């Protein structure tokens, strides 16, 4: 019984370690599509979107999200570096759908809290909060 338990524990830990390494790419179109869904979706049925959710309105109107530094057409300075690393249980839900759904929203929310004008996504977890000059 102890041998079976040790093998199961070893197999489970190996699966846990390797399952978090399976993200190879994230499509930028999917990232932007999920961001627009998050912004334009309201959880209150029958309510107009921006009349009740001031946090979404504030973020959407004041923070620009860029996926490349070349897309920023103005001079800027980086005010902060951040990263979004969600807590995941790989067997239940892998990392990729979580990042695809929330990365841009979490970066934009953090930029708004830091009074930034925009955010540049560097890689699948890291972003930069920018302020225009």
Describe the structure.
The chain has 133 residues and is of the alpha+beta class. 47% of the residues lie in helices and 17% in strands. It is built from 5 helices and 4 strands. It has a 4-stranded mixed beta sheet.
What's the overall geometry? elongated
What structural class do helix, strand and pairing data support?
A: alpha+beta
Strand percent estimate: 15-25%
| Major sheet details | 4 strands, mixed
- The percent range for helix content is 40-55%
Strand order of the largest sheet: 1-3-4-2
What's the β-strand tally?
4
| Backbone CA Rg | 19 Å
| SSE pattern, N- to C-terminal | HHHHEEHEE
Could you tell me the mean pLDDT?
Answer: 80
Distance between the termini: 67 Å
Number of helices: 5
Query: Could you name the ranges where pLDDT drops below 50 across 5 or more consecutive residues?
Result: none
């Amino acid at each position: 019984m102890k041998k079976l338990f040790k093998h199961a524990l070893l197999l489970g830990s190996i699966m846990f370690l390797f399952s978090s390494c399976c993200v190879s790419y994230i499509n930028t179109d999917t990232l932007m599509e999920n961001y627009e869904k998050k912004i334009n979706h309201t959880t209150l049925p029958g309510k107009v979107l921006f009349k009740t959710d001031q946090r979404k309105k504030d973020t959407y109107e004041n923070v620009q999200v860029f996926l490349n530094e070349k897309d920023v057409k103005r001079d800027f300075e980086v005010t902060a570096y951040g990263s979004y690393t969600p807590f995941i249980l790989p067997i239940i839900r892998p990392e990729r759908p979580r990042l695809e759904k929330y990365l841009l929203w979490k970066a934009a929310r953090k930029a708004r809290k830091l009074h930034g004008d925009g955010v540049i996504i560097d890689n699948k977890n890291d972003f930069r909060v920018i302020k225009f000059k």
